[in-house]
Specification:
Rossmann fold, single chain, 7-stranded mixed beta sheet, Dehydroquinate synthase-like, alpha domain, alpha/beta, 11 strands, 361 residues
Amino acid sequence: MKTVTVQLGERAYPIHIGEDALQQLPGLIEASGQRGAVGIVTDSNVGPLYAAQVEALAAGTGRRVITHAFQAGEDQKRLARVEEICGTFLEAGLDRASLFIALGGGVVGDVAGYAAASFMRGVPFIQIPTTIIAQVDSSVGGKTGVNHPLGKNTIGAFHQPNGVLIDLRMLGSLPDRELRAGLSEAIKHGIIADEALFAYMESNAAAILSGDRAALVYPVERSCEIKAAVVAEDEHEHGARANLNYGHTFGHAIEAVTAYKKFLHGEAISLGMCAAGHLSEALGMVGPDFVARQRACFEAYGLPVVWPELPVEETLAAMTKDKKARAGTLKFIVAARMGEVVQRTDIAPESVRAALEAIRG
């Protein structure tokens, strides 16, 4: 097992990565200092697979355990779910001495994390991500929140977990489409910060997609290292952390115009990164070889690189509501080369429109 630490001073926390990482749960619960009941949040897909095991590990610390499960799906990432979670735990008698556990993918982690940030004005929580996209990205860094019909993740809070347990065995139950979509974030980490990671993703697509956990260890560990370093430098996204949003301004808008129903998050981000690549080329930052290399890698993982039906004007309108906008100005992350990106706020609307047109195929 490998441990990566998110260095945030007194709020530093471990990310345990391995095939037995779940066994670290009792230690994390004890280390939290919370003596009250444990509230587990999961969904209808993950609960039947892993809730009993997590409940047993938590109960083994002598604490009372209550589980709340909601229907799986991106469309459940709403304030109503947060209210339901808090209601279940209030009725069960949880209080400020309690601890939450997020057991699931990115939706569960974001919703449970926001519930933890809100419950009694904030209680600690532990992330147990069960999908690849949550393991390499959303479970690390303390971004929690829910969607609004006008924008993704527009309601939320920064609330760092007390620890993250990445048990690679849990990926064995992940559907193929979810695996492919989640790997887009690992590819992104290579594009923005580590060409060697990108090259690994290029060269090992077959082994990774076959479910070979040995092939997944490196991209999961390296992604966590990259994200942990960025979060330690810029916890609240005032500077370098925005680099993690490469392709996301486009991708989040695509999700919004499809009501989060057509594409999985990683699929929308794949399209968004393709648009960001075209934008980077149009700005003279990279050449066509970069765009082609990026696209070929996404295609190797079965990720979308074009969407002929893309509604350009609706998507542009959705982008103006992106939570990353400042005083009406959008910040775009563009590639300088493979493994390095820069931030730009001087992008003309015509260039953004052209980038969207480019991914219509």
